[in-house]
Amino acid sequence: MLSALVGSRICHDLASPLGAIANGLELLSLSGTDMSAEMNLVQDSLRGAMATLDLSRLAFGRAEPGDMLDAQDLHGTLAVYYASRPRMTLDWQVTGPLSRLHAQIIVLLCLGVERALPRGGQLCAVRAHARIEVSALADTLTPDMALWDGVKSGTALPAPDPRTAQFNMLHYCLAMQGLTLDHTLTDGAFTVAV
Asked: 114 with 81: CB under 8 angstroms?
């Protein structure tokens, strides 16, 4: 898929300058220079940008069928990403090895489900047997059911949009794996299962 190759290329090209900034900050800290509030802000922003880049690489980059990823490594990437979003918490209950393709689906599920949390809340990812469930837990939930129904059926997805690209990519990944999606909305919880 061309979009996955483009995503991989963009992430690859951004990794070098972000890495150079990180190295520069590390050299400054090793030189004995006190880290000012401004430098701490730069460091925090860099940490958030690198987490976003890592997550984008997993979500929108090319996933080869034989590639594997440990669930704890994926948890680390997601934890850093959500740490830069103070109103969001992540409950991670996924263990063991994952194919890179399944890791991509989990990330896309998280990115889609988080949109149901306009005021923040908790994301919960659970692996039970062969099923993955990602839930949004909060008092206020606003999932875009038309998008989720579109992913489920594959017939009603709107034209690709940068804000909702994860839904189009998720539909593509599920179709490539022959997987189906279910979703439920109850009081305080929106759950998507694959």
From this structure: no
What pLDDT, on the 0 to 100 scale, is given for residue 51?
82
DSSP 117-149: -TT-EEEEEEEETTEEEEEEESSS----HHHHH
Instruction: Give percent of the chain with pLDDT exceeding 90.
Output: 50
Q: Residue with structure tokens 């490594």?
A: 73
Token digits of residue 180: 């189906």
DSSP H stretches of helix in the chain: 2-30, 37-60, 71-83, 100-113, 145-153, 165-177
CATH number for the 68-194 domain, one of 1.10.3720.10, 3.30.565.10, 3.30.360.10, 3.10.180.10?
A: 3.30.565.10
